[in-house]
Amino acid sequence: MPGPRWLIIHASLLAWDSNSTMTSQLSNATQQARRPSIALISLDQAYASDFENIYADLIIQFAAQSTLQRCNDVNSMVDYLTNTTPSAIIFTDPGIATKPNARATEKLKEYVSNGGTAIFACTFSSFITPPQMSKFWSSNFYFPWQSGSYLRTEVRLNAHVAPELDLSKCVAQYSTKALFLKNVNGSDALYSPPPGAVT
What we know:
alpha/beta, Rossmann fold, 2 domains, 4-stranded parallel β-sheet, globular, disordered N terminus
């Protein structure tokens, strides 16, 4: 496992330091090993400046609270996921849904089939077309999901759909303006609009 091995290597390298320095550095190393590892994957450079400008604060937060990896092309994504199993991968644009990036899609399918967490966020829903959205989910994951309504509404936490997750820091509901998916089974939605909202 990369985390423990990294910590053991550092522990052996620090053996010559004074006890106080070694304790401090081992504590820092332990904290680093416990941080989640996250990959921000941006496969379509046409949206790179939008992502960097709009989500600059989010990138800073990820860097402060996780071990952050940036993958800006198919090769870097495939290489990273071949050698690392991150806590989550976040697709920041719709590049993953385009034909030239089929190799990246295959790697994504392998990652999630082994229990990985994939998040599609930021400019993904802003720039993917409805036909691309439908084809991406149906062709690769056999989901009937499609682009739904773009609206402002309250969404509510469905804690019962993920009893294995610690949701203590999740708000019970919040207001958002977003593109929602339709044809999503209720048991697959951690947050969803109330009954009656158009999706």
